[in-house]
Write a structure and sequence with these properties.
DUF8147, mainly alpha, DUF8147 domain-containing protein, transmembrane, 4 helices, transmembrane helix, membrane
Length: 126
């Protein structure tokens, strides 16, 4: 396994953990007083799943669809973490707003990576 694969898997896992954990925590806040105790395990499960999908999808003998999903998740993770770091570090945006902004940037970037990989596969196929 290459270092780049491990790095993007960690980025995808951390991004999924932060995005899903924060979303579940906020969603369950109405009904559960300590909603963080629900958000952390769900975010951890999402992060581990995303990292595993990226590692499995960037292997040697995988289908185009698996590779496309792995590249999309990896791109989402890297873009999410970059956007979150810039929003909080450079512009001092509140964490709650920065998470929403980073999720949107990651989703748009991931969708773009998916579309580019899909177009490239279509051109190569013929």
């Amino acid at each position: 396994m290459r270092l780049r694969t491990v790095a993007v898997a960690l980025a995808a896992g951390l991004a999924a953990f932060l995005a899903v954990g924060a979303a579940v925590t906020e969603f369950t806040l109405r009904w559960i007083e300590f909603s963080l105790f629900v958000g952390i395990p769900v975010g951890l499960l999402a992060g581990l799943t995303a990292a595993a999908v990226v590692v499995a999808g960037l292997g040697t003998e995988v289908s185009h669809l698996r590779r496309r999903v792995a590249v999309t998740l990896a791109t989402f993770g890297v873009a999410f973490l970059l956007a979150l770091g810039v929003a909080v570090g450079a512009f001092a945006v509140r964490n709650s707003h920065a998470l929403v902004l980073a999720t949107a940037v990651g989703a748009i970037t991931g969708a773009g990576a998916f579309a580019l990989d899909y177009a490239e596969t279509a051109v190569l196929a013929g």
